[in-house]
Design goal:
Number of domains: 2
CATH superfamily of the largest domain: Type I PLP-dependent aspartate aminotransferase-like (Major domain)
Oligomer: single chain
Number of helices: 14
Structural class: alpha/beta
Shape: globular
Strand content: 15-25%
């Protein structure tokens, strides 16, 4: 009987809690306002001819390179960040290798690394989810071939200092170091283009968060030109669809939309953190477009009560160290005011304040 490889049969499964997502989407860190109006305008201009042709990636890659201040030879457009992670693991990892993943974090680092047969070593974050630089350095061995760092991290919002990431890259010259900057727009600090001094360094970005195009599945992987040539050999020439490629330049051109949305998100993040502080609830300061807070025994009740009010938030209890924690996305001022008003109602309704505060 045909069977999958044993390592695949043993893989953890990623189960996003999709189901019915009608309501205010504060559960997946998406842009709560949607994409740029210019993207919608471009979509309306497209005709059937574009669907009949195989997609051409190069013009969009040139547009991204110009926007990010790098060479087109230093990047590759991918089908979301997921494909970037998968591509690096398939290119550099073998069964005898080791991969280091700092937990809690995005689940797909472990899944894609483990699928190669490599040994995945989980390194717990430090106190208050601080980045464990010393522990990562101590875990590096001659078999280390992949180190994944989400910066800012998901689901905690914690940020690793860039000099620490440089130190790690230098300490593991034979390992592919992936810095996943999915939330770069909300923190403003980047490792781009430090791969020119560190050829084992890669940086990924996504257009699913600040740009509001999660449904189009567009990401970008950047790195040393020599390494990117190797990655292109393993990558499908038609990994992105024509509609996504046609819309990407329009999204890049609308800087006013992105800057405005990011500004509102940062304001909303400050308001949410201030609100949680006022109520005496534990939370972790974030550098991303979300905040992780601890609700104890009221975690699931809170998530359910918010859903009845048409607001979706994410229970992160299944993540390492996040038992009874809820992650809430921040977005526009209007959406944030609705969030805060509903939270106050729920706190009163379930008696959360009296049992968690103090």
């Amino acid at each position: 009987m045909l069977e999958a490889r044993e390592v695949v049969r043993r893989l953890k499964e990623y189960h996003p809690p999709l189901g019915n997502r009608d309501g205010l989407r504060l559960d997946f860190n998406e842009n709560t306002a949607g994409c740029s109006p210019r993207v919608l305008e471009k979509l309306r201009e497209l005709d059937g001819e574009i669907l009949a042709r195989y997609p051409v990636r190069e013009p969009a890659e040139q547009a991204v390179a110009a926007a990010f201040g790098v060479s087109p030879k230093e990047l590759l457009l991918t089908n979301g960040t997921d494909e970037a992670i998968h591509l690096i693991c398939e290119t550099y990892l073998e069964a005898a290798d080791e991969a280091l993943v700092i937990v809690p974090t995005f689940a797909m680092y472990e899944i894609y690394a483990a699928a190669t047969g490599a040994r995945v070593i989980s390194i717990p974050a430090g106190q208050d989810f601080n980045f464990p630089t010393a522990d990562v350095l101590s875990a590096i061995t001659g078999r280390t071939r992949f180190i994944a760092v989400a910066n800012p991290n998901n689901p905690t919002g914690a940020f690793a200092l860039l000099p620490d990431l440089v130190t790690i890259a230098k300490a593991a010259p034979d390992a592919a170091i992936l810095i996943d900057e999915a939330y770069f727009e909300f923190c403003g600090e980047t490792m781009v283009p430090q791969w020119r001094e560190l050829p084992n360094l890669f940086v990924s970005r996504t257009f699913s968060k600040a740009y509001g195009m999660a449904g189009l599945r567009i990401g970008v992987l950047m790195g040393n030109t020599g390494q990117m040539r190797v990655l292109r050999r393993a990558n499908s020439p038609y990994n992105l669809n024509s509609v996504a490629l046609a819309c990407l330049p329009a999204a890049l051109d609308d800087k006013t939309f992105i800057e405005g949305y990011v500004a509102q998100s940062l304001e909303s993040r400050r308001e949410l953190e201030s609100e949680l502080e006022f109520w005496g609830l534990r939370f972790w300061p974030s550098r991303a477009n979300f905040v992780l807070m601890y609700l104890g025994e009221h975690c699931k009740t809170f998530v359910s009560a918010m859903r009845t009010r048409g607001i979706l938030v994410r229970d992160r209890s299944s993540d390492y160290g996040c038992q009874d924690c809820v992650r809430i996305t921040v977005g526009t001022r209007e959406h944030n005011q609705r969030l805060l008003a509903s939270m106050r109602e729920v706190f009163s309704e379930i008696g959360l304040l009296q049992k968690v505060a103090g």
